[in-house]
Write a structure and sequence with these properties.
3 helices, rod-shaped, mainly alpha
């Protein structure tokens, strides 16, 4: 796993907690908001990691198929 892919999980959790806290305060249920924020942020972080790994895999494949002169 490369460093760019690994960075998505903590970023996703941080964004999720921020949004969850705002929703929790707006709905007057802070504990539920934070819990939902962590869950949604973790999901977004894992999805971002998968997308980054797929993108880096495609870039490596295209580099291999370059057909450069040896």
């Amino acid at each position: 796993m490369n460093k760019k892919a690994a960075a998505f999980l903590p970023i996703g959790i941080g964004v999720g907690v921020s949004i969850g806290t705002a929703l929790g305060l707006a709905l007057d249920n802070l504990a539920l908001g934070i819990a939902l924020g962590v869950a949604i942020g973790s999901g977004l972080g894992v999805a971002g990691m998968g997308a980054a790994q797929a993108r880096s895999g495609k870039e490596e494949d295209s580099d291999d198929k370059g057909g450069g002169a040896a």
